[in-house]
Amino acid sequence: MAGTLTLSTKTSPFPWAAAAIATYTEKAELSFDESASGVTLDFEGSKITDEAEIVRTLAKAGGLSDESTKTQTYFELAKTLPKVTAVPAILTSLDSLDDYLAFRTFLVGHDITAADFIVWGALKASVKLIGLLKNNKHVHLSRWYSYIEALDSTQLAQTSFIASKARSNKTAASFALGLQNAKEGEVVTRFPPEPSGYLHIGHAKAAMLNQYFAKMYKGKLIIRFDDTNPTKERTEFEETILEDLSLLDVHGDILTHTSDYFDKLYELALQLIKEGKAYADDTEQAQMRDERFKGIASKHRDDGVEDNLKHFAEMKTGSEEGVRWCVRAKMSVDNPNKALRDPVIYRCNLLHHHRTGDKWKVYPTYDFACPVVDSIEGVTHALRTNEYRDRNPQYYWMIEALGLRPVHIWDFSRLNFIYTLLSKRKLHWFVDSGLVRGWDDPRFPTVRGIRRRGLTVEALRQFMLAQGPSQAIVSLEWDTLWTLNKKIIDPIAPRFWAIEKEGIVPVKVNGGPTTPEVKTLPKHKKNPDVGEKKTVFASQLLIEQEDALSFEDQEEVTLMDWGNAIVRKKNLDDSGKVISIEVDLHLEGDFRKTKKKITWLAAPTPEHPLIDATLLDYDYLITKKKLEENDELKDFVTPETEFREEVYADANIVDLKKGDIIQFERKGYYIFDGKSQDGKPEFIHIPDGRAASIASKAGSTADTPTPARQARAEAKKLESMKPTSDTPVDTKMYQIPQVYGDLKSVETPVETKMYKTNNIYDS
């Protein structure tokens, strides 16, 4: 990036033209600063604050500049159009643009220029203009507008705007201000996972926010294993959690365990009993739950201190009598906040503890241990999800009742995603049922699963910080996260080619080399630092059936990285499938005027073999966006969630290492997952945030294209929208059935404003 474009989402109207051309040309990085006034481009030592001048500068730097008189006219139009208030006057301008675009792809010339961006930005920034455009009265203008809107670079600009706006809302603004009563060098945060499973994306938010604040204030982050329940915990889970944190690039300054403080916690429980702030209770669990709900005091609530100490001592031995009892904090019987109705703070568990062995038969609950250990370890700010909000008074009560140092609580919303389960119990069910291959399955929301799917730490970090400590409890879409991820991987992902095996079509290239030739090409056309690859050029090629079917007789197409070719012959079998194609190489042809740019591979030879590979794509594990409490999980399991596509890939992939992220051009982004048992390379598709890549595929039939094909079809649809030449535009008029009479005499309901001309096809 040569420059920086500083913007604020609060600017009105928002400078969409500047943002869109910055991402299109990649000559300026977007930087959102809500304190900024207007828009500023820092470029090659100069500061530019006028949007029109910014668009001109970036267009020139990106090779889009056009200084014709027409361009200046459109800049003037963009300046005046948003200021017009009378609807008839606005419609006159829109009509003029629509008429002009009836036979044109772009406003000036055959390629996108600054004129397109400045006018598009003016329309985008005006609610009134967009509203009038949606009336479907300006089909050509709408087609042009939709094309600019659909560009990957424009989508990136809009996603960045949305993410920044989320950060600048009321809650996120308080997040930006920092922690309450925080002092640089003194802040201590903690991440306290239970060593009973693998971390998931919800844990990732807590871990990253805790590290973020610790670094912001030059403080410390404690990683503390909350090992107070021997029933669930194992040493191996501690190891996997540390590995998961490492995958997230989260590294604590101190590693501790709640079990380090069992002796101290026991002493403090005795202190509460002796001070009359806790009591022993043998009420059965179901009855205790009912009494707490109804606000009924336990029959043991007013027992004497000696009796309570005796029962606690019996609990410590783990005797038959002792295991009947628990210890409850004496907070309240009927407080409206049910979390304060005498919660249990100690209970028996006779199982072997993975660190302390059989020393203890009694263990503190999380509600008791957490505030105590936070205070003892010097934690200044405890970050908790707001599902604990009702328990916050309980947290403060424990500290106050024991006379401990206070801790600030900073809560934020739990992270939920549509079609996604975060419950350990439900995830266990998928593993135990054999519906996934393990806790690192790319369909799982575990840290290992999402990393294996190709999600980068940087994208995850940006997304978490954009959320901040939001209090909104919502199920988020995955699109913003995957779009952020694409923004990070696209500039550095090497480009390769892969051709689907099913229905593969051989192509004879007349004018091609008599023997295969190998040329060195960049792996990424826009980033030479990514490296180089070897591409084989030959007179016998392989292309995909889908591409071959789309070819018209005598059509000129572009063979990517080679040049144009004219389709001379297309041979079909009885079912209509293409079995071979013959083309004439036409390298002097203009690739900008062809509708179809296709990938291809030279037919394999002993000297230049192709690689058999498998492309994997996945669906959500459940068919419902959000499971309700009474929903039966097995009723909403997606029938098919893994999709495999066998391909030939170019030989350059042999140098990849497991975890490398690449792009198979016209197919999408993939992460190399290693080799299968039979030695075949496997690549997992990385969603890019587009609708086709993140939509649920549940309900697909055998006739429905695979997700990979759906995504590719969407990409090709956008590709087909690119400029070709100044030919009449397909207006997609309504098809009138013959039953209504002579088609030539039927008036179509679409107002196209096409120029009146004689039909050249009439004899």
Automatic annotation (TrEMBL):
Gene3D superfamilies: 1.20.1050.130, Glutamyl-trna Synthetase, Domain 2, Glutamyl-tRNA Synthetase, Domain 3, HUPs, Ribosomal Protein L25, Chain P
Subcellular location: Cytoplasm
Reaction(s) catalysed (UniProt annotation): tRNA(Glu) + L-glutamate + ATP = L-glutamyl-tRNA(Glu) + AMP + diphosphate
Domain GST C-terminal: 25-173
Keywords: Aminoacyl-tRNA synthetase, ATP-binding, Cytoplasm, Ligase, Nucleotide-binding, Protein biosynthesis
Main location: cytoplasm
EC number: 6.1.1.17
SUPFAM superfamilies assigned to the protein according to its UniProt record, in alphabetical order: GST C-terminal domain-like, Nucleotidylyl transferase, Ribosomal protein L25-like
Family: Belongs to the class-I aminoacyl-tRNA synthetase family. Glutamate--tRNA ligase type 2 subfamily.
UniProt protein name: glutamate--tRNA ligase
Origin species: Somion occarium
